[in-house]
Amino acid sequence: MDKVFIDGLSFAAPLYVMAMGCIFSQKSGVDNLAIEGFQGFGAFIGALVAFILMPIMGNGSQAVIYIAMLSAFIGGSIYACIHGVLCVKFRANQVISGVVVNILAVALTTFFTSAVNKAMLGQSSNKFILGIFERFDVPGLSQIPIIGAFFRSMYPFEWIIFVIAIVAWYVMYKTRFGMHLRACGENPQAVDAAGGNVTRTRFLSVMISGGLSGVGGICYAYSISANFSPSIYMGFGYLAIAAMIFGNWNILPTAAVCLFFGLAKSGGYQLCLNMGLPSNYSDLFMMIPYILTLLLLAFFSKKNHPPAAIGEPFDQSKR
Amino acid sequence: MKKVINKLASILDDKRWDSVSIPILSILLSFICISIILLVMGKDPLLAFKSFLQGSGFWPKEKYGGGNGMLTDLFSFLNILAPMILAALGFVVGFKAGFFNIGISGQMLSAGFLAAVIVGYSDLNAVIAKPLVIIIGALAGGLLGAFVGFLKHKFNIHEVVSTIMINYIISYLTGFFINGYYSDAITRSMKISGANARLTWTNVQIAGVKCNIPLGIVLAIAAAFVVKFIFDKTVFGFELKAVGSNMRCARYTGINVGRHIVISLTISGALAGLAGVTYYCGYLNTIVPRTLSSLGYDAIAVALLGNSSPIGAIFASFLITIFQTGSNYMSSTVGVAKEIASLITGILLLFSACGGYFRYLAHRRMQRIQDEWDIKDNPLRKIIADNSDERKEEHIHG
Q1: How many CB pairs lie under 8 A apart between chains A and B?
Q2: Whole-angstrom Cα distance, residue A169 to residue B397?
Q3: Is A272 on the interface with B (CB under 8 A)?
Q4: Burial (CB count within 10 angstroms: exposed 0-12, middle 13-18, buried 19+), residue B397
Q5: B168, A287: Cβ pair inside 8 Å?
Q6: Is the dihedral angle over the CA atoms B113, B117, B122, B124 positive or is it negative?
Q7: B301 touches chain A (CB under 8 A)
Q8: ipTM of the complex
Q9: How far apart are CA A25 and CA A35, in angstroms?
């Protein structure tokens, strides 16, 4: 039972930070299917930095991981500029731009991972071997029965993401920038009339979106797979988009959705193990979170409302 | 230099040709970009492009293995081209009606799996088995598409979310059955289906070389023209486009929007299903469990590169598939990792996404030239223009 909570949380947290990235972009009126590409590229930059630093700072050093996370944030947000330029400046179709950015990310990262490996180690391999985060128990809280499992053998990134979530919520709902951002998604002309800069706000929010997704990507690279390889493009970015739509484009409900997702995923897996079924039955249990999501969506989707101006390039001359 | 740019702008701004000239400009620009990358890496771009053509059978190679020839390469190129065109068409139909069907991979997988299970292991006559495979493929994909449309219409579930969920579900579900019941002991993938059900004739001798002849390519080209006909010449196609461009407006004009949502996604799914059977029961003859083919996502790129028109999809598939099939041979002759093929795809897409911006730039430039001409020709306009300048200044100073 403990295992369900521990694994569930460690899957949900990176998913949540990606979903938050998606919220930032979509709330500002820029449709964002590029989360998958952002997280992969961010993770690539983070892994590259870690790969270069590891021989210098020692293999077991945990400091490398935090530097990698920071570089994943920066790398993701710089890569997001492509999406920003295409959508905000060039007024390209935002859905198309998202797909382009995804495909380009897969291509660039696979190509450069092989190239860097060849140049640095002299062997052709398409992955960077990374370490893994050290898990820890939160003293005190982990002793609470049942719920305490949430605080047992945690990855540090779960706490980092928790802090990011609070900051993101504050920025989105309590600051001037957040106000402008949300207004850009509903009625950009009004923001323009009130003296705000729609182009800059949208561009910034796409960059934030890329950065947050990059953090999500590097967390997956450091927890689930312990390396960076093209297998990072497993579709978790799309899953984050689904979580965001399910959470009705709001930061708090999306957290619940992601947690639900993580718990359903790890729960299904543990259920299969406990029932002592042959290993190929695990496939059937892995379907559970997706089927549940479809069912729940059927009940809750009616009153969903996306930001009004989403997908539309900003045109100053329109009303 | 200025003259050249003006000439270019006038070509790009021409309404009759801009659906051709702008993609060509994008493609040229991306070729230049790719050549620069190759030059930076110290490779010969011309040799690389030639190798891509050689690898996909459009240019003779220096030497061939026993029994192989240029036709072998050309037919294996057509073999992968067929599912690519069909999948891209599937996306086009959805996209024209305003839906973003990223469930193509899942629809392909389910169609291929069902066809292989129902027909692939039977000993039906090939004359019955092959059409049956095609029908099952279209039905399986179509039903899945209809389900997505139903969810969208009845419960307002965004098609991006539902197709992603269905992709995962299908991949696990087929994985379960393949691992449990149809697994090959050695390869761990699905047992190969019989030659009677396969949509590719293997090892046919043509002009002394062995070829795998795909039936799917005929199907794909025919499907492209059918889709074009539906959109250009029928009321139904017009209504679909109306739903795609403005759903509310379509509803006010009396179009039954719900029905059109379901039907368009059904057609989209059926085409994806056809792509699935030509891919899994034609090009390949097996299914690797729990893997969605990346072709379903590439097809989206192809459709967008082809300006989401059915005929454009054929040309775009051609271009992208040349790079993807030729990459192996190119990697052996030039010595660049074959992942560069997807990099090329990405760059091509990047420039084609900028197409609208190129059009806008050209239009603006032409308008400026027009304005200059007007002022030069017409003395009265010149006076007005000067006055308006003065007025502007007054406005600023005042």
Answers
A1: 135
A2: 46
A3: no
A4: exposed
A5: yes
A6: negative
A7: yes
A8: 0.82
A9: 10
Query: Do strands B200-206 and A227-228 pair parallel, antiparallel, or not at all (unpaired)?
Result: unpaired
Residues whose CB is less than 8 angstroms from the CB of residue B318 and which lie 6 or more positions away in sequence, other chains included: B81
* Confidence category of residue A39, pLDDT binned at 50, 70, 90: very high
- Rounded distance, CA B177 to CA B324, Å? 31
The three-state secondary structure class of B212 is strand
CA distance B72 to B79: 10
Structure tokens at A129: 């071997």
Our CA-based measurement puts residue B356 at a distance from the nearest CA of chain A, in whole angstroms, of 6
Distance of alpha carbon B128 from alpha carbon A272, whole angstroms:
42
Find tokens 């799914």 and name the residue: B269
- What residue ranges define each of the domains in chain A, with the CATH number in brackets? 2-134+149-318 (1.10.3470)
Q: A300 at the B interface (CB within 8 A)?
A: no
SS3 A247: coil
Alpha helices in B292-378 (DSSP H): 295-305, 310-334, 340-353, 355-377
Are B356 and A103 a contacting pair at CB < 8 A? Answer: no
Q: How far apart are CA B232 and CA B18, in angstroms?
A: 19
DSSP β-bridge partners for residue B204: B211
Q: Which residues of chain A have a CB within 8 Å of the CB of B156?
A: 301-302, 304
Q: CB distance B304–A298 less than 8 Å?
A: no
The per-residue pLDDT string of chain B (398 residues; one tens digit each, 9 = 90 and over) reads: 778 888 888 887 777 777 788 888 888 999 999 999 889 888 888 888 998 898 888 888 877 777 777 888 888 899 999 999 999 999 999 999 988 888 899 999 999 999 999 988 888 888 888 999 999 999 999 999 999 999 999 888 888 778 988 998 999 999 999 888 888 878 788 888 878 888 888 777 777 788 888 888 999 999 999 999 999 999 999 999 999 888 889 999 999 999 999 999 999 999 999 999 999 988 888 888 888 888 888 898 888 888 888 999 999 999 999 998 888 888 888 888 777 888 888 888 888 888 888 888 888 888 888 888 777 777 666 666 666 665 555 555 54
Q: Find the residue in B nearest to A288 (Cα).
A: B169
CA-to-CA distance for B111 and B114, rounded, in angstroms? 5
Q: Letter for the amino acid at B75?
A: F
pTM of the model: 0.86
Provide φ and ψ at A187, rounded to 5°.
-150, 85
From A143's Cα to the closest Cα of chain B, the distance in A is: 37
Q: Does B263 touch chain A (CB under 8 A)?
A: no
Which of A116, A233, A249, A283 is the best residue to mutate to test the B interface, defined by the most B CB atoms within 10 Å of its own CB?
A283
Name the one residue in this structure whose structure tokens are 């899942």: B106
Q: Which residue in chain A has the smallest CA separation from B291?
A: A234
From A230, A229, A217, select the one nearest A74 (Cα to Cα): A217
Q: Is A244 on the interface with B (CB under 8 A)?
A: no
Query: Is A116 part of the contact surface with chain B (CB cutoff 8 Å)?
Result: no
Distances from the Cα of A25 to the Cα of A16, A31, A100, A185, angstroms: 14, 7, 17, 9
